[in-house]
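Dear colleagues,

For the upcoming journal club I promised to circulate an example of a predicted protein-ligand complex. I picked one with nicotinamide-adenine-dinucleotide because it came up in last month's discussion. The inputs are reproduced below in full, followed by the predicted structure.
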Amino acid sequence: MSDHIQINLGDHQYPLIINNAFNFSCLSKRLQDKKVLLVSNETVAPLYLDEIKSALPFCQLFECILPDGEQHKNLLSWELILNSLADCGLTRTDVLISIGGGVICDMTGFAAASWMRGVDFIQVPTTLLSQIDASIGGKTGINHPRGKNLIGAFHQPLAVMINTTTLQTLPQREFVAGIGEAIKYAGINQPDFAHWLSDNQTGIMSLDDEVLRELIVRCCRFKADLVEQDEKEQGIRALLNLGHTFGHALEAATAYQGYLHGEAVALGMVMAAELSFQLGFCDSELRKTLERLLRGFKLPYRLKKSIAAEQLVELMRLDKKVQSGQHRLILMKGLGQAFIAKGIEENDILNAIRACV
Ligand SMILES: NC(=O)c1ccc[n+]([C@@H]2O[C@H](COP(=O)([O-])OP(=O)(O)OC[C@H]3O[C@@H](n4cnc5c(N)ncnc54)[C@H](O)[C@@H]3O)[C@@H](O)[C@H]2O)c1
């Protein structure tokens, strides 16, 4: 049995299909006899590529297997995908398929956005984080040495095909990092979801199929709702960046080796809660509630002493949300009451970070 969520974006609509197998039959008409480049990495390809190839008997398949890791989400990997597209002679009516976590989803999407000024692509996300967040909504891109996701484009996929059984092979730390992004939805506008996460912690951590499916369906609906209201992040979609400005700085400060993305977002949310408290937007309970939730899932909620607050603030200056030199951050008036705060002083940010050690 599969769950089906439709993303409606005016002139473009596409399905998110949540299943417990790889099944592309609903796309067979679109893919019939087309050239399809499968993009994956050295970790995921040995696990799932053969199964996926057998599920795609109706098209002409090619592969591009990249090195694994956030440090490879860069111009070189993007160029390797473009070289594969050139080698297989992929034309405007052909298709790319990403098979992997958020890194592969973002890079494949960006290659699809740039090849011949835009070709279709399908997301097959295989981490919890990419199934509930990265594969949905059309943000594609790569990192620049100066900062995360600085190069990219909005390019919506043709479909997102989620196979929940792929989570069985995901290392536990990666799985838990995905929970960091799930908790983000509770912080933005879904306070009841925080209770659901606490109540279902055992089922989630034991990878109970029914609980996982509900987790994924709920999160996909939360994200779909925000993306439908604001596809190009002119307003409300920016709320999805809760914890991310701090988080991206944490990732860059540790050369993408210290924190997984979802872990950095988790700690970033604590910093956002502390800053919200210090600026008088909420009481101190918010940070405590978030910390309890994060601690329950063994996610980080305190900053390592070795990371200087000054370095994080310097890195935050390069964030895409900085406008005319002023910091714009997602803060909270309470759990589930996120808002866009403009003109935040660096000194206040520094104090909040220091209070999270
Ligand atoms: N575009 C968006 O809207 C959006 C949203 C959130 C995050 N992101 C991006 O997503 C990235 C993080 O994604 P991620 O957390 O999935 O990291 P990731 O892509 O690096 O995957 C994590 C690790 O798990 C491995 N892996 C993937 N699936 C596996 C499986 N089923 N079994 C075993 N191993 C598996 C990967 O090879 C990798 O080593 C970041 O670059 C972030 O910027 C994008």
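Two points we might discuss: The mean pLDDT is 95. The radius of gyration is 20 Å.

See you all on Thursday,
B. R.
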